[in-house]
Amino acid sequence: MRPINPPYAWVEASPSSGKSEASLFFQQMFEQVQEHQLRPTSRGKKINDLWETLDKVQNDCKEPDWDGEGADPLSQGAVNELKILFKALPLSAMTPDIVPEPTGGIGLEWRSGKDAILSLGLSGNGFVTYSTIIGEGESKYGTERFFGKIPSLVEETYLPFFSKEEASI
Fold first, then answer.
1. pLDDT tens, 102-145?
2. In sequence order, which residues have a C-beta less than 8 Å from that of residue 149 and are 6 or more positions away?
3. Rounded to an integer, what distance in angstroms lies between the CA atom of residue 50 and that of residue 79?
4. Hey, which residues does 129 pair with through a beta bridge?
5. What are residue 164's phi and psi, to 5 degrees?
6. pTM (two decimals)
7. What is the CA angle 138-142-148, rounded to 5?
8. Any idea what the Cα angle at residue 50 is, between residues 49 and 52, rounded to 5°?
């Protein structure tokens, strides 16, 4: 089970062996929170939309040469990593575009205004790549181990530019 940490409100309850009245109460509360998160008016709408888009992208890119230029089919490992990453997206983030890569990888891309772009890429190899452009001339990129979350540099420094509140950049 993970703690609830704003801006994330995704709670995963693990099976409990507790039988006390308090333990059963908390287990029931966690289940209710999880159910609420999957409702269209909660976090579930964004996740459901992303899953639907991912299904379409997977279908469109499942064959070799899906782009007419020799692209590899999407890697199942990359798709699995992306599904894990969906859960790490902050509630405040704009919904990203899902971008298939010709190497078989898959990415997420955010755009805000004309001078703000953020891309995260997954290849199914346990690493996440990122690149960002914020304003004129400020660009950063890198690769980090993928531990099921957005790299901390990206999350703390760049992702705030792509929140719903900052979307007018």
1. 999 999 999 988 889 999 999 999 999 999 998 887 889 999 99
2. 85, 88, 155
3. 12
4. 121, 143
5. -60, -35
6. 0.71
7. 120
8. 65
